[in-house]
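W.,

You were right to be curious about this one. When I first looked at the sequence I had no strong expectations either way, so I just let the prediction run and decided to look at it fresh. Below is the sequence, 288 residues in total, followed by the output.
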Amino acid sequence: MSKVPAALSPVDQDIQNMLAAGTHLGTKNADSKMNQYVWKRRSDGIHIINIGKTWEKMVLAARIIAAIENPADVCVISARPYGQRAALKFAQYTGAQAIAGRFTPGTLTNYITRSFREPRLIIVTDPRTDHQAIKEASYVNIPIIAFCDTDSPLRYVDVAIPQNNKSKHSIGLGYWLLAREVLRLRGAIARTTPWDVMVDMFFYRDPEEAEKEAEAAPEKFGQDYSTEWGASAPEAAATGLEWEASGPGVAGVAALASASVDDWGATETGEWGAAEAPAAGATSTWEA
């Protein structure tokens, strides 16, 4: 960690989160250019990534992103499902653009397409999955930042962040740390206080599990509230009896209302009858 300034050094909680998310776990295969980021190899063949170098590249990438004046000139691309939610959240909090899902060929090179974009920097989740975006960015000289595993190809990648890019927790944590560091460098949040956005917001959620949780929540709440409402049922019944007991009073009011209607009818009949008599007299006077 000697290459990182003291002010940008990670805290113990960040290192613990990276270890808990499996950021340091690579694959059994290792690219020749990724050997510099590998710490050692376990007995089962899994390569262990050096967490210190991961943080160094994380800070370098954040400084590059923060140096761009217009945040909308940064484009985050993720075709891998585990990284789509993280890419969208990163774009939301940093002001960047996001392309989650299938990358349409020609987005960076064919200006006739409706999805044509001209970013100054792109960030990809996996160089192998997002190879189309990397290839087009190389045609138009756009710098590329990529989360790279031990077996990821580094061709056309300018800044490689070595970490596990196959786990949903590792991908979500990587984007969360990168977004937090970018906001800190921009001065949007203080470095001394923790970020109020939870890292869980960047994790991938299975749609089926989300639907099951949404269906189970009303049932749980309905069961609790039904018990409370059931306890107050005798009070409601007693209230109903009180209203029934006050029925004669209501009937009396109805009688008064009907009597008022009779009075109105009598008044109207008398007035109209009285008005008709002078009218007849007036007619006879004119005739005379």
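Here's what jumped out at me. Helices lie at 12-21, 51-66, 81-94, 131-139, 168-186, 207-231, 233-245, 247-287. And, maybe more interesting for your project: The beta strands are 38-41, 47-49, 74-78, 97-100, 121-124, 144-148, 159-162.

Coffee later to discuss?

I.
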